[in-house]
């Protein structure tokens, strides 16, 4: 725990990325005080503490690059609990399409600094690697240039390694491959840009139906996700129960959830 905390607040900055491991003396300075250990353990599990450290790092770096000082962020962060796979999926698409909704780019693959772009680059690289492998199995010898391109593709294929594999056991949206997710995000982005609703791809529709997502409402939800929900995104009944548990009559976003989780989705 002490080592993890020291890495979070470490001043052992490495220009090439990462931090140097803290010394035994620094670790001992913490572990010799049990009460200090308990305080730091709570901070490591606190979203507020995590966001504070992250925001501080980004603020200092941005101000240093711009030659500025003072406040960088407009306000405090907002934390919304995502109740199930449908809520997580809609939120993922919403975040990956931020640059598209802001009209900075037209396609998810052009959305810099998003996990969607990393998944796209990795998927494209994996397809090219398969093509090279097919050539080899056919007895073809790769040219020097093809060898270089293959090496570059192998590096790009690792671009999304830091992300949870969508089809893996730890994925909150199991059953949806990276390629299917990218198709869904791309389709949603095109609807956002056009400002009108089109027919969702037939092979993606059953996946959304399994999640009880109303495809007619999905695009609108993605467009306004940040303002529709504040505390929780889940089925209306779950939101009502959670609100009552906190002594409230309702949570903001109940109506939007009723529409998002509408049962009986049909293709258009």
What is the structure about, briefly put?
This protein is 57% helix and 1% strand. The protein has 268 residues and is mainly α.
Protein architecture, described:
With 268 residues, this protein is mostly helical. It has helices spanning 2-8, 24-31, 34-44, 47-66, 85-96, 98-101, 115-137, 144-156, 178-194, 205-210, 215-228, 236-245, 254-260; strands at 81-82, 232-233. Strands 1-2 form a two-stranded parallel ribbon. The longest helix is centred in the middle third of the chain and has 23 residues, at 115-137. The chain is globular, with a radius of gyration of 23 Å. It starts with a helix and ends in an 8-residue tail after the last helix.
Measured on Cα atoms, how large is the radius of gyration? 23 Å
Q: What kind of sheet is the major sheet?
A: 2 strands, parallel
Using the alpha-carbon principal axes, give the shape. globular
Order of helices and strands: HHHHEHHHHHHHEHH
Can you tell me the number of structural domains? 2
Unreliable stretches, pLDDT < 50, 5 or more residues?
13-17, 264-268
* Strand content bin: under 5%
Helix content: 55-70%
The total of helices stands at: 13
Give the beta-strand count. 2
- What number is the mean pLDDT? 85
